[in-house]
Amino acid sequence: MEAIREEIPDSQIMIELSDRYSYSFDASFGEHLPDVVIQAKNKQEVVHIVTIANQFHIPIYPRGQGTCLSGGPLPVYGGIVLDLSQWPEQIGMSADDLTVTVSPSVLTARINEEAEKHGLMYAPDPSSAHVATIGGNLAENSGGPRGLKYGVTKDFVLGLELVTPEGDVIRTGGQTIKNVTGFDLTKLIIGSEGMLGIITEATLKLVPKPPAVQTIMVEFNNVQTAGRAISRTLTSGILPTKMELMDQACIHAVEHFKPSGLPMEADAIVIIELDGHPETLRIETSLIEEIMHEIGASRVSIPTTREEASRIWNARKQVSPAIARIKPTKVSEDATVPRSKIPDMMDRLQSIKEKYHLDVVVFGHAGDGNLHPNILCDQRDQEEMARVERAVEEIFQAAIDLGGTLSGEHGIGTMKAPFMKQELGDAGLEMMKRIKDAWDPNGIMNPGKIFPEKGQKLVLQNE
Ligand SMILES: Cc1cc2nc3c(=O)[nH]c(=O)nc-3n(C[C@H](O)[C@H](O)[C@H](O)COP(=O)(O)OP(=O)(O)OC[C@H]3O[C@@H](n4cnc5c(N)ncnc54)[C@H](O)[C@@H]3O)c2cc1C
């Protein structure tokens, strides 16, 4: 600690139990107490801390706002939690280049706020954008509803600055849209869950803010038809910005929580947003209306005012808080399938729900196959949690069987590590381990994540 204190002010070092406890969990499951929490406010401080951690082989865990849903920032082997959330906000807009350079602590929604002042948009829009850092988004490759049309975080990163696990500073990519110099380390770092180093700066791509948007809400008497409607729309030549699905349980939860005028009798709704030139939107809206009626939708509503449209989108935003009130514990998954397999995945989820007698609600970014089955349960009920664990395993298996993936956006962390081999196979997993070993020879950077330990199983119950 003496070596750390040489360059880090005491006010940024926390050793009291109460402080350390605040950093022992994230928004998922599991609690792990760090030995010390250090707040870094600039690159030099990060280099100093990482160099010492590497010299003495002390585990170090980068952390933004701790909203991770897969255990990413948890200090599973003790050591140092490196809190980056207190780094002063830096947002360097370069409107002529359509780029912005940001510090790791910037809340994602702030980037879009600044971009909009210049008629521009930062498209990735995770629901946690107001509370999560761009550093966390980059490490998790976060996505949101607009991912359907625009892509996810990785599609908007031009360059990164990274402090490697050995304390060196590297820059990847740059300010240009095109760059094919050597291996694409930018893409390797994005989504690496803080295991390859600390991101200290990012240059992000912006796009022109679309001149107009149009919302459409479609009701279905059957959730499978909703799934088919999504595939049909996407193969019709129209690419909506967002296509969000809510099943009946979600609709009811929202209406009991914050009544928003959603159709209680519908089995499912799909909320669509189009963006672009007003004339194009008019044509696309009527085409979607036709498709939906053809496929068997029970009603298509087209809001005519901004207020009506925001009422619908606000209702969608209320799903998470609304379902969280139903039972004490919410296990939120993000298994993702190819879009044509959404109806099959809905069937598999229904069978899993019945087999384990569990309360499962489904919503999500259905347009890109990223469903969020949420199991509502009570963590104090060990028998129920054992059923939940088995159900979650089957949800992962269902996604893989259907050609999908364990995680569309929440990451692997500690939670999904036991299932990595099922998706990647031995050779695929081994190749990832070799990359990790080459970058981090002493294994200090966010250890205990993504790679399964021998015999590791999914555990949703705190000991
Ligand atoms: C209510 C709610 C809604 C959510 N909605 C979405 C959603 O729509 N889409 C989505 O993708 N996710 C969503 N999430 C998950 C979460 O918000 C994202 O994963 C987010 O990117 C985490 O950011 P954070 O600042 O909280 O990072 P943390 O949780 O602190 O850390 C996340 C990971 O990033 C690493 N990390 C953090 N900063 C750095 C850095 N500077 N350098 C290197 N590694 C770093 C950590 O080690 C950890 O592995 C949601 C979470 C909640 C609670």
From TrEMBL:
Keywords for this protein: FAD, Flavoprotein, Oxidoreductase
Transmembrane residue ranges: none
Organism, scientific name: Pontibacillus salicampi
Cofactor: FAD
Identification of the protein by name: FAD-binding oxidoreductase
PROSITE patterns: FAD_PCMH
PANTHER family: GLYCOLATE OXIDASE SUBUNIT GLCD (PTHR42934)
Domain FAD-binding PCMH-type stretches: 30-209
One Pfam family from the record: FAD-oxidase_C
Top-rank taxon: Bacteria
